[in-house]
Amino acid sequence: MVVAQLNDQLQQWHGAPYRYGGLERNGVDCSGFVYRTFRDRFAIQLPRTTQEQTALGTRVARADLLPGDLVFFRTGRGENGLHVGIYDTDDTFIHASTSQGVTRSSLDNVYWRNVYWQARRL
């Protein structure tokens, strides 16, 4: 069920452009996409910012990831240097990428592997 909901969300949002602070299909940021996915697909209200989302749930080892877990990355410095996505399956996650908009990416991609920080289960 979780995987089906994530796939449906990705289908509806795929390619939506990245826009800092955005919450809509005409522009959404990473934490906004996570916020909207959990609200719209699972009726779960999450905090709006990546920083706030890092405090949710319990920490999970990368080897133990399940669909729906939040995955966090340190892509820069400070609060704006954080990125969040939602683990899908087969070492992939869905997220709002600054360069590609809403998409599915691989945790095995050299960039994401190098900036991976932590995962949290709600």
Automatic annotation (TrEMBL):
Keyword Cell division (UniProt): no
Domain NlpC/P60: 1-122
GO molecular function, one term: cysteine-type peptidase activity
GO aspect biological process, one term: proteolysis
Keyword tags: Hydrolase, Protease, Signal, Thiol protease
Any matching Pfam family: NLPC_P60
SUPFAM superfamilies: Cysteine proteinases
InterPro entries per record: Murein_DD/LD_carboxypeptidase, NLP_P60_dom, Papain-like_cys_pep_sf
Lineage top rank: taxon: Bacteria
PROSITE patterns associated with the record: NLPC_P60
Annotated protein name in UniProt: NlpC/P60 family protein
Organism this protein belongs to: Edwardsiella tarda ATCC 23685
Biological classification of the source: Bacteria, Pseudomonadati, Pseudomonadota, Gammaproteobacteria, Enterobacterales
